[in-house]
Amino acid sequence: MALHFERSEFDARLARLLAKMQEEKLDAMLLFAQESMYWLTGYDTFGYCFFQTLVVKADGTMVLLTRSADLRQAQLTSVISDIRIWVDRVNADPTLDLKELLVELDLLGSRIGVEYDTHGMTGRVARLLDNQISTFGQIIDASYLVSRLRLVKSPTEIAYVERAAALADDALDAALALIKPGADEADILAAMQGAIFSGGGDYPANEFIIGSGAEALLCRYKAGRRKLDAHDQLTLEWAGTYAHYHAAMMRTVVIGDPTHRHRELYNACLETIQAIETVLKPGHTFGDVFDMHAKIMDERGLARHRLNACGYSLGARFSPSWMEHQMFHIGNPQEIEEGMSLFIHMIIMDSDTGTAMTLGQTYLTTSQAPKSLSRHQLEFLNR
């Protein structure tokens, strides 16, 4: 079997989930998030673009309902032994198959948690599901139950995150070797992703972000490439990925002579991320991290140029995003605990002067100061 964890670890994860279900008085969970299924069972697929769900009962019973294309995928990559297939057909409604399965599992009238907030649950599926089971039992939105359990990483998970971080460093090395006037963004991007594949890594859960010139101010991937000018700026955001675990990094590289504004914004990024390191530890919340970010940026007159979040939790994620639910934004009460992998990014996009500056890396939280997972320093990058 293509499992990345020992069976004992999957057993421990199931025990944690069942304890939380008991606490929430749930008789069953319907898991639709692919990362929840991967974490709980090892099941590895992109088949969640179609209807599938993992039913988990309070007694530990697990049944996967999926398509025929994913039968062998589940058999090879997971610890799931009971796999049911819904049949592709005209006007198929797999939620009817699910309802019949729930009856078979003696869950009529039960309290059932559902993962609604996931890319594995489309609006159409949600409507079909609610139509079938809204009167079947008491349906509870339990979108974040497994997500919160996944926040603190096990020793094996941490080893995968550290491997992903090393691959992210390799990708930056590959990029820096090419960045110069006249360099093609396509070659830079190919070198970065190639370094990760060559190191045994995976596709990331979303595209790498690459943009130069005016496009260096963008925070999302877009199609199209350009060559670097003699005086230019290049923003990169990428993640090393190993066994689906991500370690993200972000940098803006200045080509040619940096402007005073580039230096000014870099200093603000560096000061802020260093200040955040003092609160990125147990005893503080995700909201405290954002408050530190906002305080320093706003004191420097950068309120209009910063974002309304400054990072998020990372782990094993699937397309279309490597971001987890828990983000550093105003008022987030999520407590920071030891063993979390957290991405901190400073992003300043000054549209008034057309200047971009970013700085970001992934940390592992400890009982004291956070541990940077990158071998690269937070230096000003100039080529």
Automatic annotation (TrEMBL):
Residues 161-366 form the Peptidase M24 domain. GO terms for molecular function: proline dipeptidase activity. InterPro entries: Creatin/AminoP/Spt16_N (IPR029149), Creatinase/aminopeptidase-like (IPR036005), Creatinase_N (IPR000587), Pept_M24 (IPR000994), Peptidase_M24B (IPR050659). It comes from the Bacteria. Pfam families: Creatinase_N (PF01321), Peptidase_M24 (PF00557). Keywords: Dipeptidase, Hydrolase, Protease. Residues 13-152 form the Creatinase N-terminal domain. Its EC number is 3.4.13.9. The keyword Transmembrane helix does not apply. PANTHER family: AMINOPEPTIDASE, XAA-PRO AMINOPEPTIDASE P-RELATED. This is Xaa-Pro dipeptidase. It comes from Rhizobium paranaense. The lineage of its organism: Bacteria, Pseudomonadati, Pseudomonadota, Alphaproteobacteria, Hyphomicrobiales.
